[in-house]
Design goal:
By secondary structure, the protein is of the alpha/beta class. Helix 3 (about 55-70) crosses helix 10 (about 385-405), helix 3 (about 55-70) packs antiparallel against helix 18 (about 570-590) and helix 14 crosses helix 15.
């Protein structure tokens, strides 16, 4: 059976893309293919007949294709993938992680994927030789720095699981007083100073994290404060027994659980610390370690609360305020009497990381890519992070490979990647993105990322189930909402209905949310989308289901946790596979790329409103010109939506016009880039999106940071750049709308013959 799209354009010189006769032939051919096959379940009744970016004829064909696709993924297969992936610990640069690269590559070849390649990057890696922590006063206590085994879960007895360590910690040794600094954020040190306490030369003990901040920001803050070492522990107030049952009986962390991780300053520049901005291919030039802006200069260790409690319990100084008190049965104090000895010896050397890449080549537009990715490396077994995502990815690639074997090749090329070294510095995706930057900036349609597909306990989620938590740039958000109508959840409801119900529950609201608020359009960092959005200026989305989860980066994040607590039926893995696949297929097969710039403009106006609330902005900066330009961008985007909808519904788009429209759509996201980057962090080039040093989202980053610093000269410069970018993109949309309107205005005898 020929492919859906190759039938569309067997004659590339055909004057009209959408011929009714050709559509009828396609439908007839599709019906022939479906006969004799098991008929998959129909999509939810709420599904709409139309699909954004498709003519009615091609939407009907796309729905038939999607029905086939959704019938293929299997919970049993997802379970089997997951068990294989989590059989052994597999941190970056380990033998097991490299074996999994070969395993995934071989599976993709079996599934029918093309051009399966393993790409090697030689990067600065970090792993422990030896670490220790000992309290030497007022009593002696040697921290175990390891997690307990549980008979219920044989994997917890695996001797290959590492003890406590942080990637890219500095090496060293110190004996010093211990100071409790709450979450280790700048305001916490301000409070210590107000109480006459300096941390210079001392060991700082902080917790994960109230309020949240990335451990690498805690490290940078402690380093700036002059601390000699940093200890970060998991307090049960955040992820332990105060939240509910703990492992192995529930989703929360037991007393010995340790949140490993890296403390890289990848919010300044991600990727290999020694090749900032260019790929770390074998033989690449490298900067000296002393010049690497992303490498910490402070020793650091993660602790369980069991190892942290003796340090906290023996302090005799002033009582910390109420908001600093945790859930341990002690009084939390700033400092007093406790001294400790910390030793960290890290092996920091160049090691190979491997990105696995494969593709299904597009039948019409092979140079336009829809990219799907998930990282492979884990701190231990990675049951949630990342192996739930990898299991869903392998079911997705199996399903798309099956469609290819049936003759269903997408219009655009679909590329999949298994990233390496994400946990260290978003490394594999960054190096790959830097290697192929020229092509990606021009031709990457979108990147769809899944870090973990299921990061929550279905058993404790209640009748509405786990929460669907996508985030995306504004142009992609409406298509995610649209596709959610067509995926059925384990409960039998559509993903759309379940999504709204869980949002209402999570927000403790009395009413269902409207569609415009479902997708989070504020995008931080901390996963593999970063290089594609912030450095290359491409549209991105992240997808996950979430809920109760307290064993992050510990050895208890394993197959037992997922199979007994997280997703016992592996149905959420499949729901994620389906929505991921539908988005990929729609982006790959759409006649006109399904971007919504009117909604994008709406979100950008909202970002500006939030910035305008800063107390010093009204007196120091005139935001009105930018506000007016955003309103025009949104207005023109709305008019373009209307013109496109009319032309698509009528099948009236001319073949020669469609590439021009799609090219303009691709250029919009690229135009948000400023090649000089944001002040102080030139690798981050996006004018609209970056991340704070905490990994939290940061909109209009150059402008916002200048406002927060009171640097009004820089703020005005950034504001001017934004105004020019919005104006440039508005003109792109205006030209596309004008072309559509002019085509529609032609009389029948003036239009090209069909």
């Amino acid at each position: 059976m020929p492919s859906l799209i190759s039938c569309r354009t067997a004659n590339s010189r055909r004057p009209a893309l959408f011929l009714l006769a050709a559509a009828a032939l396609l439908l007839a051919g599709r019906g022939t293919q479906l006969r004799g096959q098991e008929q998959p379940a129909a999509p939810p009744a709420a599904a709409k007949a139309s699909i954004r970016g498709f003519t009615p004829q091609h939407a009907q064909l796309e729905r038939q294709l999607e029905t086939q696709f959704q019938s293929i993924p299997s919970p049993e297969k997802a379970r089997a993938w997951h068990r294989e992936l989590t059989a052994e610990p597999h941190p970056a640069a380990s033998a097991r992680n490299n074996q999994l690269a070969d395993y995934i590559a071989e599976e993709w070849r079996k599934q029918g994927w093309e051009e399966v390649v393993l790409r090697r990057y030689d990067v600065l890696h970090s792993r422990p030789r030896s670490v220790s922590l000992e309290m030497v006063a007022p009593m002696n206590y040697k921290a175990g720095l390891r997690e307990d085994a549980y008979p219920a879960d044989p994997d917890t007895k695996n001797p290959a699981v590492s003890g406590a360590y942080f990637g890219y910690s500095a090496s060293g040794e110190v004996t010093a007083e211990v100071v409790y600094a709450h979450s280790g954020n700048p305001e916490d040190y301000d409070l210590l100073r107000k109480n006459g306490i300096s941390v210079k030369g001392k060991i700082v003990l902080v917790r994960y994290s109230n309020p949240y901040s990335y451990r690498g920001f805690k490290a940078l803050t402690a380093e700036r404060e002059g601390a000699a070492a940093l200890l970060i522990y998991s307090d049960p107030a955040e992820d332990g027994y105060t939240r509910g049952k703990v492992f192995p009986d529930g989703p929360w962390g037991p007393e010995s659980h340790i949140q490993r991780g890296a403390i890289t300053y990848d919010y300044i520049v991600p990727g290999d610390p020694l090749t900032p901005g260019w790929p770390s291919l074998p033989g690449a030039k490298r900067i000296p370690i002393s010049e690497a802006r992303s490498l910490p200069k402070i020793m650091a260790l993660p602790l369980s609360w069991r190892d942290a409690q003796p340090l906290l319990a023996n302090m005799t100084g002033a009582e910390a305020p109420k908001e600093w008190q945790g859930a341990l049965p002690i009084t939390y104090r700033f400092t007093g009497s406790v001294k400790a000895h910390v030793k960290v010896d890290m092996d920091t050397s160049i090691q190979p990381y491997t990105v696995v890449e494969a593709r299904i080549k597009g039948s019409e537009l092979p140079d336009e890519w829809v990219l799907l990715g998930n990282h492979r490396d884990a701190w231990a077994f990675g049951g949630v992070d990342p192996s739930s995502g990898t299991a869903s990815l392998l079911e997705l690639t199996r399903s798309l490979g099956e469609l290819k074997k049936r003759g269903q090749r997408p219009r655009r090329t679909i590329v999949v990647c298994s990233w390496d070294g994400e946990e260290y510095a978003l490394t594999g995706s960054t190096e790959w993105g830097e290697q192929f930057a020229d092509h990606l900036r021009k031709n990457l349609v979108a990147y769809l990322n899944v870090d973990e597909s299921v990061s929550g306990a279905a058993a404790t989620a209640g009748p509405d189930g786990l929460s669907f938590k996508p985030d995306a740039v504004g142009s992609l958000a409406p298509m995610i909402v649209e596709a959610s109508h067509d995926v059925r959840m384990p409960s039998g409801r559509s993903l759309y209905d379940s999504w709204r119900a869980t949002r209402m529950r999570d927000d403790k609201s009395s009413s269902l949310p409207d569609d415009s608020s479902l997708v989070e359009t504020r995008i931080g960092s901390g996963s593999d989308h970063t290089v594609f959005l912030n450095h290359l200026g491409r549209p991105v989305a992240n997808l996950t289901f979430s809920g109760d989860y307290g064993v992050y980066h510990s050895q208890y994040d394993d197959h037992f946790w997922m199979a007994r607590i997280g997703d016992p039926a592996f149905e959420y893995h499949i729901a994620l596979t389906r929505i991921w696949g539908l988005l990929a297929l729609r982006l790959a097969n759409a006649d006109v790329l399904p971007f919504d710039f009117a909604f994008y403009g709406q979100t950008l106006a909202q970002f500006l409103d939030e910035l305008a609330q800063h107390s010093r902005v009204p007196a120091s900066l005139d935001l009105q010109p930018l506000r007016a330009r955003l309103a025009e961008f949104q207005r023109v985007g709305g008019e373009l939506n209307a013109s496109l909808h009319k032309a698509l519904a009528a099948g009236a788009l001319e073949e020669g016009l469609v590439p021009d429209i799609n090219d303009r759509f691709l250029r919009v996201e690229s135009n948000w880039l400023n090649e000089d980057g944001i002040p102080g962090r030139p690798w981050f080039k996006h004018l609209l999106y970056a991340a704070r040093y905490t990994y939290a989202h940061l909109e209009y980053p150059g402008l916002t940071e200048a406002v927060e610093q009171g640097d009004w000269k820089t703020a005005q410069e950034q504001l001017s750049l934004l105004e020019k970018a919005v104006e440039k993109n508005t003109e792109l949309l205006r030209v596309a709308r004008t072309e559509l309107d002019e085509m529609e205005a032609l009389t029948p005898h003036e239009k090209p013959s069909r």
